[in-house]
Input
Amino acid sequence: MSNSEFLVQEGAFPCAMRAWSQHEQILLQWLLKETHDKELSQDLLQEVFIKVMQQREQFCSVDNTKAWLFRVAQNLLIDQIRKDRYQPMDDNAERPEEEEHYDAIDLLALSCLPRSLSELDQASREVITACDLQGMNQQDYAIQHGLTLPAVKSRLRRAREKLKQQIEASCNVKLDDNQNICCFTTRT
Output
């Protein structure tokens, strides 16, 4: 039984049925393109469906259900990649320098990014959230906000620079000799 058939049989809320039937296949195609693994893609799709079900009636208040579904799918995919990449190491084994670099960036993104992003002005926060975090095409953002594409590109560049400065200042980011992030102060 497909997820859509389950929704219909269980009498779930109509907004979820509509959103799921409209976007289930495109989500699966995107996951297949990203993972190149049919079983993993189907597992992740199932987890997205579970997230929809956990939202219950709150899902009906989501303005852009497609963006919400893709954001959840992307987050689940990132979690899966991190889980696959994490391998407990022998205490005596030496850790490659590049892997430490990625671990520091992941930790920085988890601990400093959300708060630093929330401290930006609304326009900067909106363009970064839409284009970088939710994956909206810059041209679509321009059309939606009545802007030209060069204006959006410029706003996004400035917003990214502001975010970088905010993270570096408020999280006390330190770089190593190779100009890679080595350490930072976690914000509470």
In short: The first strand starts at residue 174 and ends at 175. Residues 91 and 160 are 38 Å apart (CA to CA). The beta strands are 174-175, 181-183.
